[in-house]
Structure formats: structure tokens, C-alpha cells
Amino acid sequence: MPRKMLKKRAGPHNSTRTLKGVIDEETALKLSELFKALADPTRVRILSALRNGEACVHEITAAVGMSQSAISHQLRYLRNLRLIKHRRQGRHVYYQLDDAHIRDLFNRGLDHVKHG
Amino acid sequence: MPRKMLKKRAGPHNSTRTLKGVIDEETALKLSELFKALADPTRVRILSALRNGEACVHEITAAVGMSQSAISHQLRYLRNLRLIKHRRQGRHVYYQLDDAHIRDLFNRGLDHVKHG
DNA sequence: TGTTTATATGAACATATATTCACATAAATA
DNA sequence: TATTTATGTGAATATATGTTCATATAAACA
After folding, report:
1. For chain A, which residues make up each domain, given as ranges?
2. What is the dihedral of CA B17, B23, B29, B31, to 10 degrees?
3. Quick one: pLDDT at residue B15?
4. Which residues of chain B have a CB within 8 Å of the CB of A43?
5. Which nucleotide is closest to B8, CA to C1'?
6. ipTM (interface predicted TM)
7. Fold annotation for B26-114
8. Domain A36-116: top CATH class
9. Closest CA–CA distance from residue B9 to any residue of chain A (Å)
10. Smallest Cβ distance to B41: which of A28, A48, A59?
């Protein structure tokens, strides 16, 4: 018997339905941590700066227009979550997105903001 | 002349390259606000509870295992950002994801957390 | 109409977080 | 080796944020 056919109950809502598909706490925490990395304007701008390839810290700093220290802190944050990777070349350190996954996620969010 | 052919410069890095494609501050803010909505374990679990369709507040509350007040606050948060929509039926208020976009974004993040 | 059930909300509080400041490390050059 | 350039980092601080508590609204029922 489909749900829609059930006679509308009066009185207290005796819901026996247990919601299915709620993710467990640990997964929820990890997922929220991933999104948290994208939940700050400075980090978003850093990531957007890396969409087209790698860039070194002072290029990123100039592009984002924030103090080098702030940028470094955020780069570390993103690095710890493996959203970006880096390589050293002499005095410079070049950063880039860790994989296409991240770019996708970013672009999908951007899409939603711009349209829809 | 391709970049790779340029002789490696010594001395201070006189970078004339201006990073292309950095999104503007306003877009960055909006984008970060979108991701911020997904950047909390409780909100993540609420959204996951709504992946399979609508649910009313006390169903969500039971599923997520948090106080009704906390859930209501977070529902309002998600509502204000238009990530969910609601309809009232008698004493109950049913919530559901606002559109497929949101589900996609959520699932994509979840994918990244579970695998690669 | 008074009570119960369902949901919403403001204020308070504790915690998390982003930036700044001062300084540390590291590599290249004079 | 002393200095300059590039980047990293700990502590401090101000602000943002999530939950709780008390209470409000709203609908249904006795």
C-alpha cells in the first residue's frame, strides 16, 4: 500500500519512519572539513588562482591582494587537507591543485553561484 | 617563444606575470558562503537526510540525533541560502533539497572523501 | 478554550577561525 | 660570510559560529 493512500492521521504524529541514508558522524565530519576548506573567501581566491596551473607564493599573494603571511597560513591549511601540492624551485615554492577532483568541485560551486 | 625556453633568471624574481583567472572578491565571498553551508557536520547530516526526498523536522531531528532547536537553527541557515525549501502540512513542516545542483555538489564532495 | 504537539527564535556562551605581528628558516647573491 | 629575497610559523587578538536554554508561535485536539 503506497504512502499516499494512507488516511491522514489526526493526533500526535506517530512516525515510525526512520530516515534512511543519513551519513555517519565520522563521514559527516570529514565531508564538512573538505567543504570548510572552500568556505573562506581568501582560500577560494587562492584556489581560483591555481585553476590554470601552478603559481608561486608571491604571485598568489599579489593576485589575491592579502598579506604574504596570511596567504602562507592558508596555503598550509589547504596543503594539510591535500587540496594543493607544492614543489620547491630555488627560493620559490610553486603550488598547484592536487587533482582534477578539486577543480571540479570548485567549478561546480562557482556554477551554482553564477547561475542557478 | 614558449615559456620553457626562457633562460633561468638569477637575482630577485622580477615576476611580470599577473595571475589570470582569479575570481573577484564578491564572487569569492558568495562562493565561500555556499561552501560554508556545507562546512558543518550537522548541516551535512541534515542534507544527507534529505537526499532521498523530503522529511519533516522531527524526523530529521531523530535521524541526526541533535536537539530540535539546533536542527531548526540549521534548517533556517540552509533555508536562507536556498539550499533547501519547505512546505507546511498541518503542524509539520517538510523540508527537501532545493534542486539537483545541491545534491550533485554534496555527492561530489562525498565521493572525494570516500575515495581519492 | 485550554492543552498538547510541532516548529521557530532570541540571547547567551563557549569554541573555532582568520589575520596580524614579530620572527624564523632557507636559498641566492654581493 | 653578510645581506637580500622568498616563504613559513607561533602567539595574540578580534570576530564568527554552533549549541543550549527559555520561550514564542502555530496547528490540532479534548
Report:
1. 36-116
2. -130
3. 57
4. 32
5. C28
6. 0.89
7. Arc Repressor Mutant, subunit A (1.10.10)
8. mainly alpha
9. 11
10. A28
